[in-house]
Amino acid sequence: MQQFKVYQSLWAMERRRPDGLEWTLDEKLAMIRDAGFDGCGVRFADFEYAKTVTAFLRDHGMSWQAQCYPRTVDDLKPILEHVHALGADHLNLQPDVRPYTVDECVPYIEGWRRLAEDAGIAMHIETHRDRMTTDLFFTLHLLDRFPDLRFTADLSHYVVGREFAWPIDEVNHGLMHRILDNTWGFHGRVASREQVQVQLGFPQHQGWVALFMDWWAYGFRSWRRRAAPDATLTFLCELGPSPYAITGADGYELSDRWQESLQMKDAVRALWARTAAG
Fold it and tell me: Which of 26, 102, 123, 159 is the most buried (most CB within 10 A)?
């Protein structure tokens, strides 16, 4: 039976308040566990940090995705060693390179995929600004070259990056659907055409919230058709701290991101259940 797991981003647990008040790592992990998340996204470049976090998650029957940001093909090798040592349901690769042409991307993608395949580790490439996948059109050209590329879809970057006109027209829906048809995991954030992260509960943002829910529903249904009967889809709630989070003149955020993360967790679980039923 296909499964759905909702993770919380540890980066999203940073507060960055003017008063300097931060949760300790132990506090963050306990909050994530007690709130009913299935696991976390864990930065794997720092082995000791990853070891500490994954030990807690393992002890509490939780799981995790390994996150990395390689700038060369060889940068991936130690990350794969860490995954072998600590485990992970998959590797989320954010390609920290900015080639000008698709041809320049080929050695990176082929090299990373070869290393991950040889290591027996599932790997997704994240859609993200200021990375290889920064632009929607460029990423679609990558798909032309690599039709079986597996993405982690963070759609917020393409909404704000392309500054889609509102309402979204069928052409742009079609472009996003093509990304979603190659998506094997999700990072969750709601953007508008001008802001990469908007508050989920504000009345003026509800059109954007509904848009992302519709796209995620399309992506869930698409994944169900493509994935194995016993596969697991992960959704990482990733509501980032300032400057992703909008702050007022006093430097404090305009909403409570932790509460919004809980709201997102419940909303996407309900969405998964609805797409299963229909």
Answer: 159
Which residues are paired to 42 by β-bridges? 66
**H or E segment at 172?**
helix 170-180
Output the CA angle 109-212-249, nearest 5 degrees.
100
Q: Is 131 helix (H, G, I), strand (E, B) or coil?
A: coil
- Which H or E element spans position 166? none
| pLDDT tens-place string over residues 187-240 | 999 999 999 999 999 999 999 999 999 999 999 999 999 999 999 999 999 999
> What is the rounded distance in angstroms from the CA atom of residue 139 to the CA atom of residue 117?
22
Token digits for 60?
A: 């509490």
Q: What is the DSSP string of 192-260?
A: -SS-S---TT-GGGHHHHHHHHHHHHHHHHHHHHHS-TT-EEEEEE----TTTS-B-TTS-BSS-HHHH
CATH class of 3-277: alpha beta
pLDDT surpasses 70 at 26: yes
Confidence of residue 277 (pLDDT cuts 50, 70, 90): confident
Tell me what pLDDT residue 197 has.
98
Assess contact for 168 and 191: CB atoms under 8 A: no
pTM of the model: 0.97
What CA–CA distance (Å, rounded) separates 202 from 41?
Answer: 27
Residue 273 has pLDDT above 90, yes or no: yes
DSSP 4: E
Cβ atoms within 10 Å of 177's Cβ, excluding its own: 15
Asked if 265 contacts 37 with a C-beta cutoff of 8 angstroms, the reply is yes
Distance between CA atoms of residues 84 and 78, nearest Å: 10
Cis preceding-peptide flag for 243 (omega within 30 of 0): yes
Asked if 208 and 190 touch (Cβ cutoff 8 Å), the reply is yes
| Phi, psi angles (nearest 5°) of residue 161 | -70, -40
